[in-house]
Amino acid sequence: MTWWPGNYWWHWLFFTVVLIGFVLVMVLMVIYVERRALGRMQSRLGPNRTGPFGLFQPVADAVKILLKENIVPDKADKLVHWLAPVIAFAPVVLIFAVIPFQNGALLADLNIGILFIIAVSSVTTIGVFMAGWGSSNKYSLLGAMRNVAAVVSYEMPLALSVVATVLVAGTMSLNGIVAQQTIPNILLQPLGFLIFFAAGCAEINRSPFDLMEADQELVAGFHTEYSGMKFAMFYLVEYAEAVAIAAIITTLFLSGWKGPGLPPWLWFIIKIFVVFFLMVWTRATFPRVRIDQLMAFAWKFLFPLALINLFITAGQVLIWPDGLPWYVIFINFAIAGVLILFGSKLFKLGWGRSEV
Amino acid sequence: MKFERFGLGLLKGMTVTLTNFFRHPTVDQFPEQRLNISRRTRGNELIWSRERCTGCGTCAKTCPQGAIEITTSTNTVENKYEVERYQVDTGYCIQCGLCVEACPYDALFMGYAFERAQYRRGDLVQSDDALLESPQRPASGYYHPDIAAKLPRQTLLVDRIVEKKE
Fold first, then answer.
1. Taking CB atoms and an 8 Å limit, are A41 and B21 in contact across chains?
2. Do B10 and A345 touch (CB under 8 A)?
3. What is the ipTM of this complex?
4. pLDDT for A5 beyond 50
């Protein structure tokens, strides 16, 4: 084929199509899993009318939402209001460009993969803030402001816990991080995993930290004024972000595509679902936090712990430069327990005057 | 030192949701699976017996809403009232059951059914033959223990929750 530019472009086309399809299909599956699991945890059945076991419920929801009228408020900033869902969605798909599905099977094996993810994932916040600002609605704006505050605060512990895993792996390429993990990082970095999980949940507005879209206070937060296709985009972003965080946790802490027996990409998807189940589980269990609790949790609890964790990991890497030995697992679990105990002991709100 | 404040409380909460996850759900799937309602329920309709009614109008006088309308004429031959029209606006009915208690001839019963939603307010007005007892309109055991004894006992849980019954 003389007209085709070369192997590189085949690679690009194949992975682009696969990734977009992967994100959309995963979002549908994940919505189903969330609604069913949440139902069972609340002693209900969850959706069960459409198709066997309600399997087509997300499809029915999507069709319904796409057929709805697209309402734009009179006083809205039309261009910003229209652009916001697109700007929120694009970075989420970009995250998947550097996540390996099996050894070397990824769109771009950047040697700074994790840095790319941290840089790109924050762009979603701009879309969210544009939505809040553009709809000229006080609830939208409040929700967007809370979202920005949360993302700016939680980016710190998130990045610091990532740096610890990068120190252990000695590389920033996600494929390299997976290839290096003979012992899954969740065992070597238990505290890092917990911090990343909590900060990740806060960053994508999942339930214990979903006060940016707190229904009781803010109608629906930044997407109050959205309907139809544009609302569908925000819904998609919400779950695509959840899948993205689950995929990043899988790659960084659960040794990605590695696993016995099954093909690597299947292991990867199974692990994504396990992490997502953990998110659903925490959502079903914990009540929503207040804004001061949210901020205090990031700055007074997660941030110092992530910093200490980083220093301890750096020390360990200095002592054992050729990779951490297996008995470090016990040391790190002990350290994690002690640090969580001390962190909780010292955790106070409003100089100790208000209830934690 | 109470460990609930140090993360143990979170774990306890998570075990609760996990036990619920593996337990059988407890909600019944309504249209397919039904619980038996109380035998003495005051359903949202009235059952009227044409044979027993003497047209005395006690029910209409007792009704706090004035929902019962009864029109009678005098039968001079047999020296009694003839009920020409018995009409209940169930849209006004508050299901207090006072008419059933007041009826001196046991001619009124509360209904046992409850699915009586209508699209128009006018459809809520029932009169004469529409008020008689029929298999679709069983009488409740309210104020009538003999009827209550024949109705199925109330159930609080369905034996087995199923996904969907075709």
1. yes
2. no
3. 0.75
4. yes
